TrEMBL record:
SUPFAM superfamilies: MurD-like peptide ligases, catalytic domain (SSF53623), MurD-like peptide ligases, peptide-binding domain (SSF53244). Its cofactor is a monovalent cation. It comes from Dipteronia dyeriana. Pathway: Cofactor biosynthesis; tetrahydrofolylpolyglutamate biosynthesis. It catalyses: (6S)-5,6,7,8-tetrahydrofolyl-(gamma-L-Glu)(n) + L-glutamate + ATP = (6S)-5,6,7,8-tetrahydrofolyl-(gamma-L-Glu)(n+1) + ADP + phosphate + H(+). The keyword Oxidoreductase does not apply. InterPro entries: Folylpolyglutamate_synth (IPR001645), Folylpolyglutamate_synth_CS (IPR018109), Folylpolyglutamate_synth_euk (IPR023600), Mur-like_cat_sf (IPR036565), Mur_ligase_C_dom_sf (IPR036615). This is Folylpolyglutamate synthase. Belongs to the folylpolyglutamate synthase family. Residues 455-486 are annotated as: Disordered. Residues 458-484 have a biased composition (Basic and acidic residues). GO terms for molecular function: ATP binding; metal ion binding; tetrahydrofolylpolyglutamate synthase activity.
């Protein structure tokens, strides 16, 4: 058996904190939130947390983007920054960024064991070991305290009120991003209930900002703010002209909303911490240079990210390209579909000019230089690679994705459904299950939704076989099952693992030299992370 590295040993210890219980378990409510204060005492972090200059951000959509913009702005203003976000895509260290860079392995290990060993030594029946996310939040506090960051930007993991990051009693400023329906099984089934949960991060007298919200949500936010004497303001979306002709580092119209919120959070943080040398006042009508640089250079893995396949691209640049976006709500599906449709159009236009993205200054793009003369003569084919958590409703997600793409003239030749690799209650790349254990019933349910949509979508370009030939095809597929662990229909396939799906994609591309394959990976940030891990190897 291969020797386990010190880093993998730490990942195994971290994995032991993952509870098998669903996050939606009813006994989860608050889940003894008071324990967090015991953990903080054990780790001797009370003083450090109360001194920390925190920006705390909750919301349904755009939390990660808003935090990323805010961190980038304040780093460009010359401050030492700490950023805690979730989930991670490839490596757990991504959750802890110091001055915009994920913490190095050496420091991570030192802080990890410092916290883990102390908690283990002091755990009891009464104060058990913290659960996975709580431990990561405590670790973030330890890292930011020890590294003496000037500002700690904390993204709420789930909800607000009972989130582990909410042990912060006196943040400098709070932000609530766009609210919508997500994690309803935990947070409540109305926008009002969800807003109430997120507003749980409001602290007495601490200013808060939000973006334009549906009325039901806004009413609840205002009511909670009023009770706590919180000055709550709506931050206007960023006016694109303030960027002096440059583009935001994160792609998509909705990012102007997140950028506007990040500007409000950053300038309020600067004012309230007495750093008046750089600040932005709406009246001046221009953004400080540091703000512009922060907004245009911000980048976030797994959101509107384009990654050419390393293996195929060594011989045939541009023949297999992954378009990755962790969208997992109906609204973000639509945004993702618009981005994908636009990106593949830009891609085909640029094939003639040599490959250079308009935004390829290194922001959300990671593009190999591609040879336009060869690529431009190939026919592009779009494939969807999809999974979502079983608490989400594919009847809301998939039609939105398909219709928005179709409205832009984009039709998927095939949809592939796979389970996430990272669901095996393990953190780290050395954890993968025996394939026989994988339950694919959810993937088959997703496939059925897709096939029904395709049957109903007469406007689509995909031809459907009649039932008779479909039966024959299914019989043939059952035979193929043994070879590829896939179940195929005319328009879709289920693979029992992601590596098999990637292998099938690579094999298809190798066999068909006249096609450029463009794969949209979406539905789950975990899936996006799993694909990045495999494709970047």
């Amino acid at each position: 058996m291969a020797e386990v590295s010190p880093y993998e040993e730490a990942l195994d210890a971290l994995s032991s904190l993952i509870t098998k219980r669903s996050r939606a378990d009813k006994s989860n409510k608050g889940d003894r939130f008071d324990l967090l204060f015991d953990y903080i005492k054990i780790l001797d972090l009370d003083e450090a947390i109360s001194q920390m200059k925190v920006i705390h951000v909750a919301g349904t959509k755009g939390k990660g983007s808003t935090c990323t913009f805010t961190e980038s702005i304040l780093r460009n203003c010359g401050f030492q920054t700490g950023l805690f976000t979730s989930p991670h895509l490839i490596d757990v260290r991504e959750r802890f960024r110091l001055n915009g860079v994920e913490i190095c392995e050496e420091k991570y290990l030192a802080y990890f064991w410092w916290c883990y060993d102390r908690l283990k030594e002091n755990s009891s029946e009464d104060v058990p070991m913290p659960t996975y996310f709580r431990f990561l939040a405590l670790l973030a506090f330890k890292i930011f305290a020890a590294e003496q960051v000037d500002v700690a930007i904390l993204e709420v993991g789930l909800g607000g009120k009972f989130d582990a990051t909410n042990v912060v009693q006196s943040p400098v400023v709070c932000g609530i991003t766009s609210l919508g329906y997500d994690h309803m099984e935990i947070l409540g089934y109305t926008l009002g209930a969800i807003a109430g949960e997120k507003a749980g991060i409001f602290k007495h007298g601490v200013p808060a900002f939000t973006v334009t919200q549906p009325e039901e949500a806004m009413c609840v936010l205002e009511e909670k703010a009023c009770k706590l004497d919180v000055p709550l303001q709506v931050a206007p979306p960023l006016d694109a002209s303030l960027l002096n002709g440059q583009k935001l580092g994160l792609v998509g119209e909705h990012q102007y909303l997140n950028a506007g919120l990040a500007i409000a959070l950053s300038s309020t943080w600067l004012q309230r911490t007495g750093h008046l040398e750089v600040s932005y006042h709406q009246q001046t009508g221009s953004l400080p240079e540091q703000f512009i640089k922060g907004l245009t250079t911000a980048n976030l893995q797994g959101r509107a990210q384009i990654v050419p396949d390393r293996i195929i691209n060594t011989e045939r640049p541009g023949d297999l390209v992954f378009y990755l976006d962790g969208a997992h709500s109906p609204e973000s599906m639509e945004i993702c579909a618009k981005w994908f449709s636009l990106a593949i159009k830009e891609d085909s236009q640029q094939k003639n000019l040599g490959f250079q993205s308009p935004n390829s200054s290194g922001s959300s793009y990671e593009l190999a230089q591609m040879h336009g003369d060869v690529g431009s003569r190939k026919n592009p084919a779009q494939i969807l690679l999809f999974n979502c958590m079983s608490v989400r409703d594919p009847q809301l997600l998939l039609p939105r994705l398909m219709k928005t793409c179709a409205s832009q003239g984009v039709y998927f030749k095939k949809a592939i459904f796979v389970p996430n690799v990272s669901l095996y209650n393990k953190v780290g790349s050395h954890a993968s299950p025996a394939e026989s254990q994988v339950d694919l019933s959810w993937q088959f349910a997703l496939q059925k939704v897709w096939e029904n949509l395709m049957q109903g979508d007469k406007g689509g370009e995909t031809k459907n076989t009649d039932a008779g030939s479909k039966d024959k095809k299914d019989k043939k597929d059952k035979k193929d099952d043994t070879e590829t662990s896939a179940k195929s229909c005319e328009n879709s396939a289920v693979f029992s693992s992601l590596p098999l799906a990637i292998k099938w994609l690579r094999d298809s591309v190798q066999q068909n030299q006249s096609v450029r394959t463009q794969v949209l990976v979406t539905g789950s940030l975990h899936l996006v992370g799993d694909v990045l891990r495999l494709v970047k190897k």
